[in-house]
């Protein structure tokens, strides 16, 4: 559910203590802010839909579903979606959006998931794993609930991001860092764990996944017209904010 600027401002700081990512406290503001935001509405969601391809009839788990925008996009393309989130308020908002006929639950990705083995054809973990220091248990559970050959689409902070803000940072170290955001007028602090690219792919392999795709996509074409000032910062038409993976369950 996270959000991070394409190139964070200098207000970003290395975190010395844990800061709780309490989405219950700003769920409505976060949802309102990102309904039409550049990074969420015109970058992450269209990229996930593109990577997912033809999902008609496929059972898809939205892990860390937030208020449900990715679930809606996939359901609109014929998927049978289920979702969970640690934030009860986010699940409430998702239920308002998706209706009572969609299986939405309050659950924590760091613990056992309330689904049977092999229940899903695909899973999406968008802007979730970068909040966690240890990916071992979450990836193992996501692998468990996928059928053999199932896909996991992962979106996380690009590993170069922290280095762009703090050049003195050791890229190869797993590092906790925080930044403050303004979501629709409400301030919130989010804390992330940076890890280098090889640490990500090593974790995927150890969990029983094969990395099929690593993507650094551009935003949707209409972003240039809708956000001319922001896009003017990136002459190439693309930016490094998130990294996208398509993993296949071995």
Automatic annotation (TrEMBL):
GO MF assignments: S-adenosylmethionine-dependent methyltransferase activity
Xref: Pfam families: Methyltransf_11
Identification of the protein by name: Class I SAM-dependent methyltransferase
The keyword S-adenosyl-L-methionine is assigned to this record: yes
Domain of life according to the entry: Bacteria
Coiled coil region boundaries: none
Organism: Lentzea alba
BP-aspect Gene Ontology terms: methylation
Gene3D superfamilies registered for this protein in UniProt: Vaccinia Virus protein VP39
Stretches assigned to the Methyltransferase type domain: 61-154
Keywords, ordered alphabetically: Methyltransferase, S-adenosyl-L-methionine, Transferase
Transmembrane segments: none
């Amino acid at each position: 559910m996270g959000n991070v600027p394409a190139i964070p401002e200098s207000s970003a700081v290395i975190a010395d203590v844990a800061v709780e990512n309490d989405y219950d406290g700003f769920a409505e503001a976060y949802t309102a802010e990102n309904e039409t935001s550049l990074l969420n509405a015109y970058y992450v969601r269209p990229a996930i839909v593109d990577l997912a391809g033809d999902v008609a009839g496929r059972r898809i788990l939205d892990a860390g579903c937030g208020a449900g925008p990715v679930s809606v996009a996939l359901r609109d393309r014929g998927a049978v979606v289920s979702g969970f989130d640690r934030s009860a308020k986010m699940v409430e908002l998702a239920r308002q959006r998706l209706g009572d006929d969609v299986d939405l639950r309050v659950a924590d990705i760091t613990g056992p998931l309330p689904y049977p083995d092999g229940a899903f054809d695909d899973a999406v973990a968008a802007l979730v794993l970068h909040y966690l220091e240890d990916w071992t248990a979450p990836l193992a559970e996501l692998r468990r609930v996928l059928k053999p050959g199932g896909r996991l689409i992962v979106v996380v902070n690009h590993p170069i991001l922290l280095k762009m803000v703090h050049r003195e940072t050791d890229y190869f170290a797993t590092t906790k860092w925080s930044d403050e955001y303004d979501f629709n007028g409400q301030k919130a602090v989010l804390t992330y764990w940076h890890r280098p690219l090889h640490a990500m792919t090593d974790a995927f392999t150890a969990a029983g996944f094969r990395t099929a795709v690593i993507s650094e996509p551009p935003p949707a074409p209409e972003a240039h017209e809708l956000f001319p000032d922001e896009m003017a910062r990136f002459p190439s038409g693309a930016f490094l904010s998130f990294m996208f993976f398509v993993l296949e369950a071995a």
